[in-house]
């Protein structure tokens, strides 16, 4: 250093010095049953997540077996061959990938049967029981996890069949749990009906309503950021924050899923669940502890504090060409884009607009949270026009957190410029395996941790917010305006954000750092 040159030193490997998990490993063999095993969700998400958990040692071959169940009449090897191409290498284990895949696939057995008949589920229970007996498992001490990679319309009959024919026979420390995917209904009434039908068969601690956004690394970091860092505590309120944007953008359209998407639209598909869950974590108060019920209690309080959505604070859009899909009705009013303002009526957030934005066929692909702070009072540097301070959490792609702030531009003159403090995950955590959302959430179901799953009263409160607006859209009372694919969406969306108080920064673009 005597030469006046800077040196770069590698940081020490990260250590889990503050592990807060209280999970104690369970005994008893584990059966994971994937219903809808021949479908796209199972092939592209569920089985790859199970493979990565297996490869990282979170599920062991000596105490787990995986069963696929669907109507398609295929053999064990047929299912394995269908899955094989979706099992990508785990970081750090590339050299043994083929061997790992072969070992994992041998854990999978397939059972064919209908979703609403006794015969198929008796065959499934027989296959599971034979595996449990082969492991010398005491009756009732085993663990059964049913993952419903199915449309919600078949949840009630499938749950009824599981309850009737596939449960543990007695309670000797084992359990039966079910995982259900969104959408959980289309409005408040249908969601409550679905919840009631499943609730008649299973207790709430047995039901895991999965929203994969709650498994994303940066979403899971939100509570840590807010409640484990002192400098955020005094800033995170209406005194300092002007507005908060929660944004989901895709640069492609419905891609052949037009008929399915048209039944739901962008609000039901993205905003009512994914983005609203993010809002809860951004806005909630500190829970009493990290116990799942304490965390979910605080999320429900946020949802119950959201005011009814005003019609003049909603902009809907539908990209040109959406109706060209033959499966989409010619007169469809289904929005492929929506921007709306949610307002939370409580002491912390009164007057702070939460701008929710989601759309397809836009000019970029990203999901992020953008917390924009108020202007600095007494602007002696005359730099307000350059933009406000912002704290941005990039959920995908290129996971990162960065603080946008004003600094002096290097040089002899006193000029200010916008820059950032940047934590880019790809650069900072090069050697760390960042799990996919489904990996984390499936592991949580095995461990019995419901913190990152949606509780029944939480689901009800979410639908209460959006159902009045959705019914107006369904009746054609609120129209979707056309916008060009590859654009920012309808012009009215930016105007609505500006009216709500968001100040656009011009001339500054965050560029993810390269390795």
UniProtKB/TrEMBL annotation:
It is found in: Cytoplasm. It is an enzyme of class 1 (oxidoreductase). The keyword rRNA-binding does not apply. Pathway: Carbohydrate degradation; pentose phosphate pathway; D-ribulose 5-phosphate from D-glucose 6-phosphate (oxidative stage): step 1/3. PROSITE patterns: G6P_DEHYDROGENASE. Residues 33-221 form the Glucose-6-phosphate dehydrogenase NAD-binding domain. Keywords: Carbohydrate metabolism, Cytoplasm, Glucose metabolism, NADP, Oxidoreductase. One of its GO terms (molecular function) is NADP binding. InterPro entries: G6P_DH, G6P_DH_AS, G6P_DH_C, G6P_DH_NAD-bd, NAD(P)-bd_dom_sf. The keyword Oxidoreductase applies. One of its GO terms (biological process) is glucose metabolic process. Pfam families: G6PD_C, G6PD_N. Residues 223-501 form the Glucose-6-phosphate dehydrogenase C-terminal domain. It catalyses: D-glucose 6-phosphate + NADP(+) = 6-phospho-D-glucono-1,5-lactone + NADPH + H(+). Catalyzes the rate-limiting step of the oxidative pentose-phosphate pathway, which represents a route for the dissimilation of carbohydrates besides glycolysis. PANTHER family: GLUCOSE-6-PHOSPHATE 1-DEHYDROGENASE, GLUCOSE-6-PHOSPHATE 1-DEHYDROGENASE G6PD. Belongs to the glucose-6-phosphate dehydrogenase family. This is Glucose-6-phosphate 1-dehydrogenase.
